[in-house]
Design goal:
Length: about 100
């Protein structure tokens, strides 16, 4: 007796379903990869624009050098602060100022 080999109607439907499912999975993976690539492209464009903007921005001017403070001037400023705070009286301030100035 001869056996007939074949998949039958149910087998064909199962194979077709599996092929369709696999195709949909492949398409979803391709879509996801395309979205990721688009996001990377956008990040690259943003980075390039930021670098161009920074390159075009003028450099900040250098801070001016702090002037050297004369020790006598510093002492007079200190005495004035003490007088303003009420720590030195008018007479004490005048005497200390005269001493600092060498008068």
């Amino acid at each position: 007796m001869m056996r007939r080999r074949g998949v039958g109607v149910v087998g064909v439907a199962a194979v077709a379903h599996h092929a369709g499912k696999k195709s949909a999975q492949n398409q979803a993976a391709a879509d996801q990869a395309a979205q990721q690539q688009a996001a990377l492209d956008q990040q690259s464009q943003d980075l390039a624009a930021l670098q161009a903007q920074q390159a075009a921005a003028p450099a900040a001017p250098a801070a001016p050098a702090a002037p050297e403070v004369d020790p006598v001037t510093a002492q007079l400023q200190n005495l004035a602060n003490l007088h303003t705070q009420g720590i030195l009286s008018d007479d004490e301030y005048s005497a200390a100022k005269a001493k600092a100035l060498g008068i």
